[in-house]
Amino acid sequence: VLFKKLKGLPASLDDLRITFPSHALSLQAVLAWEPPEGKSAKEADELFQGTFCLDFSVSYEVHGSTCVVNLLGAGDNPPPVTLENRQEFAEAF
To answer: In Å, how far are 11, 63, 79 from 75, measured between CA atoms?
Structure first.
């Protein structure tokens, strides 16, 4: 993955599976999730957001401090990941 980044090439979900398998499995669960039958679009989205509780940010620890990065690059309050924008989240991740 590092070599791809150095060459300016995009990393894929397969690359993520190799380097961070648990992250890849979680991301795959987000992409594969389907709402129960009979739910309206609004109900399905509320259920999705309630299940995953994600927004467009990632966090990591550096020297004992937690750093949070907005995947969209701007603002302190990243938007929630919804059923509609989950693919965009996966690509940004």
So the answer is: 25, 24, 10
